[in-house]
Every structure is written in structure tokens, then in C-alpha cells.
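User:
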Amino acid sequence: MAHHHKDPSQPAPERSLPEGVKHIVAVGAGKGGVGKSTVAVNLAVALAQQGLKIGLLDADVYGPNLPQMLGAAGYVPQMGPDGKIEPASAHGVKLMSMGFLLDPESPVIWRGPLLHGAMNQFLKDVRWGELDCLVVDLPPGTGDVQISIGQIVPLSGAVIVTTPQNIALLDVMKAAQMFNKLDVPIWGVIENMAEFVCPHCRKASRIFSSGGARKFSEKYGVPLLGEIPLDGVVCAAAEAGTPACVAQPESAPARALRAAAKHVASRLSAKPKTDDVKQHGG
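Assistant: Predicted structure:
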């Protein structure tokens, strides 16, 4: 895959959606380890289960693990005569990931221009076809990939994933401020690992302090899209290549993820609001 260096002296090209794609929604987090990719995968699958045409872009070039989570790790992308790359398809979702192109055991050092070129190709040179929504799983934090995607395509909205602790609010704020700077509306926050479900007695208990996401939601008027329990079935499903929304559809996490997906689906069909761009002060 060729990479194009960006000349900073040239004006940025106008942002445009990939052909056939109606919306792009980013899933981000202020830091790693909050289960962002697991949430992104299950959101995408749950949206597809609702009858929507969904694509999933694994933009986490440092740790691209979505192919394994969707059972598509062995896929080898092919380029058609028109120069477009054919994405994988798994559980009703079209998928493109740097994991298809890299040696999984070789660390890669990415510089800004290379990242920008890779994101541009993943967004514009993949044959996404007709999509109601392309879900983009961002790397954790607030780095070059997020900025590049914000420069290449208009994002309809963003979903922030966090854990329950009050201290996690600092990381949520960082992610929120980044999306504000990119003029991306924040559609909501999802609290992952809200409570722990015991694998033996199936009782739930809160092992973290609680209410961080709810406090953020109330303070800044950002919807709380869901509180996802920490349940071993989610991890086991991801490692087996079948997301929990498919493998364990009646589990508490799957139900909560489907409810979050319904919130996102309602935003996809709603008309944009003029005051929706900035959800809170930066």
C-alpha cells in the first residue's frame, strides 16, 4: 500500500464522505484499556442486526485487533482493477484494518504523514459500497490519527468510551475537547465495565467507584448511551472471533450494547441540529 506525504504548505482539500457512505461515526477514548474496540465492534454488529448497512474501519494502527474480534484475521485484501480495495465481511459488517496488512509480531513506528496517507486510503480507496454508517474505531488518546481523519472526512458524530471511576472523567474531557476542536458532535458516552458479573453466581457488583460517566453526562448535557457490565462472556466472545451481540445475544452486556446501538441508529436517521456541533465549552 503506497503512502502519500502531505505538503503542509498546500491548502487542505475539502472534506468529503467516501462514495456511498451516508455517515461516519467515531468511537474514541481518552486512554487505552477501557474496552473501546470491544464496544466499537459490538456497536457495529448491533447496528447491522437492526438492518442497517454498516462498515467498520479499524483506525487503531498501533494495535489493530478488530480482525481477531470479528473472526477475520486471515483475510487478505485484494485490489480491484479500479484500484479499490475489497474489505472483509464478517457478521454483517464490512471491515478494513491495518491488521490485514502488517506482520502481527512486528511493531511499526508511524510518522504523521504516513498515518495521514494510510487513513486517506482506508477511507477513500476501500470499496465500502452503500453504507448507512461507517464506524471508525480510533486509537486511544488524542493523536495524529484522530486529527487526520477529522481533516479527511466530515464526522457525523462521536461516541466516547470510558470506565466508571471519577478519575476517568479527566480522560473523557480530553477526548471531548479533541472532538470539539474537530467540530465533531458528541453523540454520547458509554460507560464500560460499569459493574462486574460473577461467573459463578452471576450476581453483579460494582468493583470501581461509580457514576463517572453519568456525572459527565449530566454536567455537559451529553447523553449516557449505556452502562455495560464487565462480564467474561464479552472477552471470550471477542477472542473466539464472534462478538457478544452475536455469541451471547441475551447476556446483560449484549442487551446494553444493543440499547446503545439503538441510540446511535436514532441519530443516524435524525436531521442534524445547528447547535449540535459543540456539546460543551472547550
